[in-house]
Amino acid sequence: MRPKVYFFSLKKGDDRSRLGDGLRRILSLKGTLDFIKNDALVALKLSFGEKDNKGHLSADLIRPVVDSVLSLKAKPFLIETNTLYKGDRQNAVDHINLALRHGYGKLSIPIVIADGLRGEEGKEVSINGPLLKNARIARGALSADSLIGIAHATGHMLSSYGGAIKNIGMGLATRSGKQIQHSNTKPKVGRDKCTACRSCIEGCPSDAIIIRDDKAFIDEKKCVGCAECIVKCAFDAIGISWSEGSGNMQKKMSEYAFAVLKSKAGKSFFINFAIDITKDCDCMEKEGNIIAEDVGILASGDIVALDLATIDTINDRAGRDVFMEAYPSLDWRVQIEHACDIGLGSKDYELEMI
Ligand code: SF4
Ligand code: SF4
């Protein structure tokens, strides 16, 4: 049987406040949230956005999800992980403070940064995928009883499209897991910026950094790719190579989503908000240009069907492939095809209008 993707359509000029009713209707459909049991710890995965980027989903938009889970006498909490790069989401304290500044405190449910205070709380999950044998997943995500992914569908500078798969695969990886997805190469020190302050050396868990010729130097043989040194360096002297092809990054992202959902079979549901569809994702410093008009909310228990239906719906309404147009050298199909190949979900879906 083809997986259903529920679609609440928002037309040009429609009142945005209709989205709440639409989402409530989806969540009250028989079978949608049946997997949620009494007292279950239900992780609601979304991004809290970046400091100066207003593109993130507001607390009001996701309120119906919180209310629905509470009405089932379960215990919802917002879940996120530390970022790979420097900024206001690099540790749990800064991250939670950012979430509160962005208004998520009004939901009155806990916020959990699932990979610990500084990204140290991960667990290796065996997946035996075509590219990766194991994935490093935030421990808290694996411990949750069930999971609802709430993604903002946008363009993306490395995968041309980012939605439900990215929200789970990248969003619930530990910092080292994110590093593995982003690049095969280890961080490198920019000698021109390095002041030899030694902060990175003190923070490196593998003793992989030494001072050589008056600058920090990373021994790639010892480096485990945890990316801790990037956060430690106050001079932006350590960076990641983004040279790995988009294709490999997308495939690894799908394999990471597979690792997260391995323990959540039949215990997860996914929602894509296809509104304010920007060229770049909400992780960027500033929100990007709008590349397509709002289409509404799509939701499904099948993460692959959901992302494909979201892309199809956005592109159908635009009359062109807006993601390929924004990033001609990248192809979003890679993440969908690979996700399908590894059994993460189905490309064949049935769209049900709500
Ligand atoms: S990535 Fe981690 S292991 Fe590698 S040099 Fe940086 S801190 Fe050390
Ligand atoms: S923390 Fe940055 S500036 Fe300090 S030694 Fe390491 S690379 Fe150089």
Ligands, ions, cofactors: iron/sulfur cluster
Mean pLDDT: 92
Proportion of residues in β-strands: 15-25%
Q: What is the CATH class designation of the largest domain?
A: Alpha Beta
**What is the helix fraction of residues, given as a range?**
25-40%
**CATH topology annotation of the largest domain:** Rossmann fold
Largest sheet: 8 strands, mixed
Low-confidence stretches: none
Rounded radius of gyration (Å): 20 Å
Q: What would you call the structural class?
A: alpha/beta
Under CATH, the homologous superfamily of the largest domain reads LarA, N-terminal domain
The number of domains is: 2
Q: Can you tell me the CATH architecture of the largest domain?
A: 3-Layer(aba) Sandwich
Shape: globular
User: What is the number of strand segments?
Assistant: 18
Terminal Cα span: 20 Å
The side-by-side strand order for the widest beta sheet comes to 4-3-2-7-14-17-1-18
The helix tally amounts to 12
Give a quick set of tags describing it.
Rossmann fold; 354 residues; 18 strands; binds iron/sulfur cluster; 31% helix; two-stranded antiparallel sheet; eight-stranded mixed β-sheet; globular; Alpha-Beta Plaits; alpha/beta; single chain
Q: If you had to describe this structure to a student in words, what would you say it looks like?
A:
The protein has about 350 residues and is α/β, with parallel strands linked by helices. It folds into two domains: about 5-180 and about 245-354, LarA, N-terminal domain (Rossmann fold, 3-Layer(aba) Sandwich), CATH 3.40.50; about 185-240, Alpha-Beta Plaits (2-Layer Sandwich), CATH 3.30.70. It has helices at about 20-25, 60-70, 90-100, 140-145, 165-170, 175-180, 200-205, 230, 245-260, 305-320, 320-325, 335-340, and strands at about 5-10, 40-45, 75-80, 110-115, 120-125, 135-140, 145-150, 155, 160, 190, 210, 215-220, 240, 270-275, 275-280, 290, 295-300, 350-354. An eight-stranded mixed β-sheet has the order 4-3-2-7-14-17-1-18, sandwiched between helices. It has a two-stranded antiparallel ribbon with strand order 5-6. A two-stranded antiparallel ribbon has the order 8-9. Helix 2 links the parallel strand 2 and strand 3. The protein is globular. The two termini are about 20 Å apart. The mean pLDDT is about 90. Bound molecules: iron/sulfur cluster (2 copies). One iron/sulfur cluster binds near residues 209 and 224. One iron/sulfur cluster binds next to helix 7.
